[in-house]
Amino acid sequence: MSMAFNPARWKPAALLPREEAHDGALVFVVAVLCFLACATAIFAISADRAAQGWANQLQGSATVIIRTKGSESPDMAASRAAEALAGTPGVAQALVLERAKAEALLEPWLGTDGIIKDLPVPRLITVELDPSAPASAKALDNALRAAGVDGTVDDHSLWMQDIIHAGQIARIAAVSLFALMALAAAAVIAFATRAGLSARHDVVEIMHLTGATDGFIANLFQARFAAMAALAGLLGGGAAALLAAGIRLLGGGYGLIPVLPIGWLDLLVALPSPVIAGLVAAIAARVTALGLIRAMP
Amino acid sequence: MIELANRDQTDTIVRFDGVGLRYGRSPETLQDLSFELKAGSFHFLTGPSGAGKSSLLKLIYLAHRPSRGRIELFGQDIGRSKRKDLPFMRRRIGVVFQEMHLLEHLTAFDNVALPMRLAGQKPATYRTDIAELLQWVGLGTKMHAMPETLSGGERQRLAIARAVVARPEIILADEPTGNLDQEMGQRILKLFTELNRLGTTVLIASHDLDLVASSGMPAFNIESGRLTSPYMDGAADDPADDLGLMASGEPEFIYRRPLTLSQEDSLEDQGP
Fold it and tell me: One digit per residue, pLDDT tens: chain A, 297 residues?
């Protein structure tokens, strides 16, 4: 066997030992972190989309409460108000909510035993706004005044604020979680680099004393941990994409969680996972390795 | 200042000036060392175990920084040298470590190739040299053997091959013949002598006074961390003659390859 060795066909071997005992565990931990980061990103996108949808729905409509004045009947006042509102620029449609429907809305609180019939239930008008140039609450209010109708316009701004606020919180939480997981991955890799350098101190020392530059030695660790993290990123990101695809497929048209609609394109978020994981690992390994090597004379 | 030169060397390759070395808070291992090694000189460093021979060598091959004093290497004050310049200085030094420090996960061939790879040389430029060198040190049939399968003597020969393969300007050897039989010891000594004849400065730490005496080469002595007057300084004009060894038979690449790889060879561009 030894005699068969042909120097002309010799190829330089990897300078670092190929496998470490803790490599598998490191890939697993980084893969889990990548999975969580990608899942967070996918659900953040769907939460953002849901918040946007709710905001659009609220932005596209307004509710007007009509109070009667003098001898005019509530139905008459509501009818006049609806007519005035329908003619306002930026309004697509204005419909009077029938008394029966208004009573149905009050039933859960007042019951069905006839009290409602004796109460002056306000009449409601649902106004559908033109999405391209929606009328403002002030414009609707002016239209009511011009028609001589006493009413209050609710353009849902109170709810809108809450929804926009909730959407912002969801975005900030998602970005923070993503950053936290990236930092955790970097810390794990820095720890692994430190352990790897410590375990291979003999190899590092020989290379150092034989004339290897700090950058060359750091490159070895950087390349090794970047490759491992890229593999972990592929596994973790792939698992998150599979999970999201499963949720999208299993729940019918709106997915398993209709309140968080997942689009097929959302899965692409997992695509850069190997690159980002590799990059984070490369930086963490390089910084750690250089710090340790520079402690040598 | 002790000046250590033989034949007609003029350039100083190593200069120690009032150098001391302390490990942690322990007493000084080396004290007030002042000497010069001229380029192309050949010396033994003698002294009992624990006298500081290895520590002195470590200061020269830049494994330690002195606690005090000044060291000049290749004309540069290493205390003032930039860190980025030190690897290039180390490439000009070949070291046979006492513990050998072989890379256990690499084959014998890859171990010897290490200095060439670190200097960014292309394999085609040194493959045959390594094969020739391994053949010469008696490891021709074990080129792709792993170090753990080699005997103590074979490991030592491998470490020596790695130290000389890049034709360094100075060779520092710490007990290089300790595990070798007399014949192989003499053979290795002859290689060092021939390299010295071609311009390489050689400093060998040894406590084997018989070997030193039989070599006919000058020696200086260290005791309790202090350099004492030279133990022997009377080298012949051509030390190889005094060794009484064969006049030829060294690996041929040492005559082809110039002394030390170019300092401009950069690893940063090569990648791992």
Answer: 445 678 888 888 888 887 665 678 888 888 998 898 888 888 888 877 877 777 777 777 888 888 877 777 878 888 888 888 888 888 888 888 877 777 777 777 777 766 767 777 778 888 888 878 888 888 888 888 888 888 888 877 667 777 778 778 877 888 888 888 878 877 887 777 777 777 788 888 999 999 999 999 999 988 988 998 899 999 999 999 999 888 888 765 555 566 667 888 888 888 888 998 898 889 988 988 898 888 888
What pTM does this model have?
0.72
Cβ distance B63 to A209 less than 8 Å, yes or no, reads yes
- For chain B, the residues whose C-beta falls within 8 A of a C-beta of chain A are 61-65, 83-84, 87-88, 90-91, 95, 101, 103, 105-107, 109-110, 113-115, 117-119, 123, 127-128, 130-131, 141-145, 162, 266-268, 270-272
Sign, CA torsion A160/A166/A170/A172? positive
Domains of chain B: 39-62+84-256 (3.40.50.300)
A246: contact with B, CB 8 A cutoff: no
Residue B84 per-residue DSSP state: G
- What ipTM goes with this model? 0.84
Closest CA to B116 of A207, A113, A183: A207
Sign, Cα dihedral of B177, B182, B188, B192: positive
Tell me the domain boundaries of chain A: 21-55+161-293, 70-148
